[in-house]
Amino acid sequence: MVKLARTSMTDQVVSYLREAIVLGDLPMGAALSEVRIAGEMGVSRTPVREALQRLAVEGLVVHSAFRDTCVFTVTHDELDRMVDFREIIEGGAIIHAMKTNLSGLRDGVDRVIAGMEKAVARRNVRRYLSLDTDLHAVIVAASRNSYLIDANKLVATKMAALRTALSMDIQLIERSWNTHQEIHDLIATGDPDAAERRLRRHVRDTKSLFVAGPGVVRDGGAVSKAG
User: Fold this and answer.
1) Cβ atoms of 213 and 165 closer than 8 Å
2) Which among 149, 69, 130, 137 has a CA at the least distance from the CA of 108?
3) So what CATH class is 2-71?
4) What class has domain 76-216?
5) Closest Cα partner for 90 from 37, 162, 140?
6) For residues 175 and 196, what is the distance between their CA atoms, to the nearest angstrom?
7) Distance, CA of 129 to CA of 105 (rounded, Å)
8) How far apart are CA 209 and CA 57, in angstroms?
């Protein structure tokens, strides 16, 4: 019983910290203190330590050689690898989904796009960014390929945090919205090759925005709006 209770508490700390990282409340590169987090959440240091270990496995938290713990950062090289990975996973997923599950893909994308439109109209940036992450997840999920779905999880949360670091500007959100509408329209036409090309280009364009964005990606490893 004690073990189950502690596991539940650890889950709560994991969820709290993951959300804080994705929303930018804990910006990339920010130092993480077990004592401070435990005090804020009113728990002991044990579930905090376990939560940080789990987030490190997800790549959201990094333990340095000096035993400091901080929110992840991304180098140019790592960003290149993430973009290549996303192109392969998402490009393959949209092709497969459109050939084997087009109605399911359309329904899922329609639902998210409708929410995005409302978020843009209300200038609700945080809601839009959450739906941006959902849209890419829906495309991969529509492939109904468990290997693609699990692989996507390797970078999905990191990408959500990167979007927050970059895209709090409503103009960038509106630009993103136009791109997602184009992808939606290509899915609606039922042309998998065109949809895949547009999705891949979108992923590559996002990389250039990250590189150009102030304080998002730096040579040698720093990625932080806190820095």
Assistant:
1) yes
2) 137
3) mainly alpha
4) mainly alpha
5) 140
6) 19
7) 20
8) 27
Q: Are 133 and 159 contacting, i.e. CB atoms less than 8 angstroms apart?
A: yes
How many Å apart are CA 194 and CA 75, to the nearest integer? 31
pLDDT for res 128: 94
Tokens of 185: 């329209």
Confidence of residue 225 (pLDDT cuts 50, 70, 90): very low
Q: Kindly list the distances between the CA atom of residue 86 and the CA atoms of 34, 43, 158, in Å, as whole numbers in the listed order.
A: 33, 37, 12
pTM of the model: 0.85
CB 99 within 8 A of CB 192: yes
Give, in degrees to the nearest 5, the angle at Cα 190 between 185 and 192: 95
pLDDT at 19 over 90: yes
Q: For the chain, what are the domain ranges?
A: 2-71, 76-216
Taking alpha carbons only, the member of 95, 32, 100, 34 closest to residue 69 is 32
Residues 38 and 184: beta-carbon distance below 8 Å:
no
